[in-house]
Amino acid sequence: MVEQRRAVIKLGGGLITEKSGLCEPDHDSIRISTGAIASLVEDGWTIALVHGAGSFGHAKAKRWRLSEGRVNADLGEEDGITNQRETTILWNKKNGEPIYNAIVWQDRRTQEYCKSLKNKNYENNIRKKTGLFIDPYFSATKIKWIIENIKVSKKLLKSNNLLFGTVDTFLIWKLTKGKQHLTEATNASRTMLFNINSNKWDKDILRKLNIPKNILPEVKNSADNFGKTDKRVTGKEISISAVLGDQQAAAVGQACFEKGSIKSTYGTGAFIIMNTGSKKIISKNKLLTTICYRLKNKTTYALEGSIFIAGAGVQWLRDKIKLINNAYETEKIAKSTKSNNEVYIVPAFSGIGAPYWRPDARGLITGLTRDSDWKTLVRATVESVAYQSYDLFNSMNKDGLKPRIVKIDGGMVANNWFSQFLADVINLKVIRPKVLETTALGAALLAGYQVGEFKSLNQIKNTWKKDKAFMPKINKKLRNHLLHGWKQAIKKTLA
Hints:
This protein is α/β, with parallel strands linked by helices and 495 residues long. The chain is 38% helix and 20% strand. The protein has helices spanning 13-16, 27-42, 54-63, 111-119, 123-130, 139-149, 152-158, 167-175, 185-188, 203-209, 231-234, 246-253, 311-319, 329-336, 374-398, 416-426, 438-450, 457-461, 476-494; strands at 5-11, 17-18, 24-25, 45-51, 78-83, 89-92, 162-165, 182-184, 194-195, 200-201, 218-220, 239-245, 262-266, 270-277, 288-295, 298-307, 344-346, 364-366, 405-409, 429-433, 466-470.
């Protein structure tokens, strides 16, 4: 009798993904893991593979008391969605197939069209209505580009069979088998088509850009009834009870419910959001006014600063110039260098966002000498994220908002060196939570709020737990010296 050997192997998200950016596979770990599993199979083992669920799973596991062996009867009956916000998809209503590849938020192909809109003096009007600047970053000009450049779009428009959505809308459409064409307020507020004063699609902007209103989804609250998934897709019907753009979801996951509370997420890009309550604050220093969340038809607003390249800079070090094998190495490398040796990298690989809003800007390395080595470049890349954050917090200070404490999250903040350097540069107390993947957590928490699992936002707030606080340590003279070097690098980039 041949002995049967069986094993269950869990491939957790922390093992198979890079934490420097969103949805980035760790190819080295995957290769090693799959090689080991293949060897076991060759030796006659029967393998059951199980995947992890990250912070989302942690929240659910706690709710359902899995550690006690208890599972509620409503397991999997409701869920939430969080997504990249500005990424744009147009699809055929009849078959649900996209007519073109999704155009991601970092894409700059509409730069010239944006310039033409500015030349028509549209920007002030658009900013008053949407809280946004005219920039390729947002969805509107991406929609326009697809309609103008993809032939089938004209035919589908004539037959009323063309639909637009950000990623959340497309997912809802697919999950419900075309029954629901919906988005919610935070995602709508990033299209450059949504009037955040009236909470409606703006007819005037649509007319100016010649975008038909009938391709746009209905806009709902962040916690709301978004329909049920089709059992042919998910095995059984699951209520979709919350939808949020990723950065707003992170604000919820960080329990930023009070006016003045701030979170800063460091993933592929970096995004700082300050809750401004029921008041819309129009920044005089080029920050964005946006919607933080909308619950029970009551809108909470936010001030946002956007950094296009954060973890993406680390990916550049790894994938393009091959200085590192994985993101985790950056902490050790940065620690091993005494200073930046006056070297600065401005990672304007996709233009540069707030507070400069220069889509035409390109990356720059300055201060190189014969003493500069590859470790210097690694450190300078990581440092650049803190300097870009300083620019945003400095804008908030100039607007009279005076930040005091910042909650940070995202893959980059697992790097203790970076988190401390960030606190030093922005000169603020920085707090890291126990759960770093706060985007998924925020969507899950709002879904729980919608179905009554949480009776109030205060109950959600009580679930938040601190991991570590970082206090500014460097002296004022050194800090000013470092920032002077950064400001000079920015001047060269924008020249």
